[in-house]
Design goal:
606 residues; alpha/beta; seven-stranded mixed β-sheet; five-stranded parallel β-sheet
Length: 606
Amino acid sequence: MPADVHTPDLDAIHERYAEERDKRIRPDGNEQYIEPTGQYAHFLDDPHTEVAERAPLFDEVTVAFIGGGFAGLLTGAKLKQAGIDSVRIIEKGGDFGGTWYWNRYPGAMCDTAAFIYLPLLEETGHMPTEKYTRAPEIRQHCMNIGAQFDLYDDACFSTEVTGLEWDDRPASDGGKRWIIRTNRGDEMRAKYVAMGTGPLHRPKLPGIDGINDYAGHAFHTSRWDYDYTGGDPTGATMTGLADKRVGIIGTGATAVQCIPHLARSCGELFVFQRTPSSIDVRNNSATDPDWFATLEPGWQQQWLENFTTLQTGGFTDEDLVMDGWTDISQRIRDKLLSSPEPDLSPEGMLRAYHDSDDEKMVEVRSRVDQIVDDEITAEKLKPWYRQLCKRPCFHDEYLQAYNEPGTHLVDTDGRGVERIDETGVWANGEHYELDCLIFASGFEVGTSYDRRSGFDTIGRDGVLLSDYWADGMRSLHGMNVHGFPNAFIVGPTQAANLISNIPHNLTEAGETIATIVAHAEASDVDEVEVTRDAEDTWVALLEAGGRSFGGDASCTPGYYNNEGQEISTAQLRNTLGYPDGPVAYFDYIARWREDGEFAGLTFTQA
């Protein structure tokens, strides 16, 4: 701890945490957010690519993947490497990229080090230009993966799946296939289907009274309107805002990245804040090509394993990534081992976490005082919660933005914006007239899978996936679902559940799916399906372990902890991970797919 930080009154701090949490609890929970409809319905449209007319498709592929982000690209690449040539990715955007196709706001960049965040770096030969690369580079990397693995050949862009149904007729009659219907009139067929629609693509809006009354210009950060603002995704000055009064609602990870650019461009900027983000040091830096050239084959897998080990409290000889994530975990580990007789019980580990977090958050709040000139503003920007209660943010320009003379923090003391009218925003009983209103309200996370994906999945005997998961997600490895043969779900849940570096989860899932499909094709089988017993056993293992992505109920509300509401059994199942943690899961799933037994799955021939 820096020498100038006085010994804190921890009891007072913890009381403040509880007070700040309580004032932010809302009875509507996730229902406080609404879907873009009416005058905001176009927020769901694609402003980047003009939809090209094409005839509907009635063909068949071996594997269809729904979603063209990292999940689809990684699975597609692994399938191609495994010799499966007939792969079609179906993507509602105009190109590959997923969230990096949609997020083109100024300042967008990865918040996990690019050397572990960007997948397939060795395979593509790409050197990240910075430790934390910008969105245009990430989007280009996605396109390069698509080109290198010939994933553009059968891809369907600007295409939304509207229905997915299993045809259970015998294969000899053309069955044992998935029928995929889309908004383009397609009725494709695929022997296997995989879904990686993810949670970060469907924008949500705050359900503020009068939101539909606003008559000024408005847009969501994932649909940034450069025609209005000027500038571009590389960060050029937004000259169109020079004489504008601009308001932005939200101070989460997206807002933290774009607010510095707005502060430099707007005539006046009003930041409406309900809960401040935790802002730690980022220390971004350019990549040294000479150093990068010294990395030996297999380096990225080594870095992935090193990061995951350290980030989850394990031990390594060195910290290869050296970022805020590994710092958090190493502090906890060091605190745990600092006593003469380390207490490795769950209670002892929890104390170590709390002690190290208390130390870190004192530093984070002290940093606000060191950077922000105005004392009142600085006080309002301090996060009063534990660092992992909300997505930790790392930035070296965000706090400085409040030193700009035209930037105004409108802190609502946890209440949020009161209402919106034709000309602006009401907060704290005061009206703020605006020319432009920006919604930095994020994407749908806590809603049902079928709502986020935009379609439901009909398995054997007409069972809907939404019904089968009515009491929570059920799967083997977060991937295979009983009653839905030849189908795969791709994501971190009910698997490694590594939220600090999502692509690592997707890499392992893609490898596993490719191995299963290649084995099935080589064995000339019609169906691959998890048994109900294996699914039950896996879910029971996860529930007994209790390792959950769901946040602590004592935390300030956010999507980590279901907006502070009680977490139901169904919601808990949707956040579970392997009991022994990500490192153990990655080791387990590698052994599972490599031994050739595929325990829990049945491979059925006609």
